[in-house]
Amino acid sequence: MILEIKNLNVSFDGKTLLSDINLNVEKGARHLICGHNGSGKSTLVGAISGNPTYKIDNGRIIFDGNDITNENATSRALGGIFTGSQNVPEIPGLTITSFLKHSASAHHNFQTGRDLPMAEFIEQLETARDILNIPREWLNRSINVGFSGGERKRIMLLRLIMTNPKLAILDEPDSGADTETQTQIADVIKSMHDTTFIFISHQQNFTDLISPTHTTALSKGKVVIE
């Protein structure tokens, strides 16, 4: 198992949002988390990724054999957990290239203890950009400023490919994306065989494109037992 969640209880501002969540995610899975709005899906994503907004009151989160329940979001990210949020803010003044270089360098140093050579970074960036057919001029623009919903998703995919995480958690990656971009997202997910995916989606057409290997349904903060 790449991820084990055991008897997890999560709250926000004193209100319990998740109760007694037990979930196992196998390595290489494309695991769909489904449920109505307010069922706890995004809260679960936040708890796994280390979002400090949510308080873990009970339970454990085991990632790749290590207990990460009390680790912060940065440690989890460097350890191999990628989070694709539903809404990513605009960051004026920070270019896509600068952001990707900082992220790639941090991951490379954490994993190898060495700095990432610029030539190696550029090679990785060009390979990922070519896969996604992203115009080179995008890379000098500020993050998400002036980009459409679908274009923002492609930037998210660029970061995903560059990071090459052990586990990618995507919260409604199809939201705001046109049909072409949704197909591209699904193709990238299915091509990354070394990455395990947890994803949330309300759209059956998009879910069909990905062909999830496992499905977990939530309702009122609990796992639905079928």
How many helices?
7
Question: Spans of 5+ residues with little confidence (pLDDT < 50)?
Answer: none
Strand order of the largest sheet: 6-9-10-3-11-12
**Total DSSP E strands:** 12
CATH superfamily: P-loop containing nucleotide triphosphate hydrolases
What is the CA-based Rg, rounded? Answer: 17 Å
Query: Main beta sheet: strand number and arrangement?
Result: 6 strands, mixed
Q: How many domains would you count in the coordinates?
A: 1
What's the shape? globular
What percent strand? 25-35%
Helix content: 25-40%
Mean of residue pLDDT?
92
By secondary-structure content and strand pairing, the structural class works out as alpha/beta
Put the structure in a nutshell:
By secondary structure, the chain is α/β, with parallel strands linked by helices. The protein has helices at 41-49, 73-78, 96-112, 118-132, 149-163, 179-191, 204-210, and strands at residues 3-12, 15-25, 30-34, 55-63, 66-67, 81-84, 91-95, 142-143, 167-171, 196-200, 214-219, 222-223.
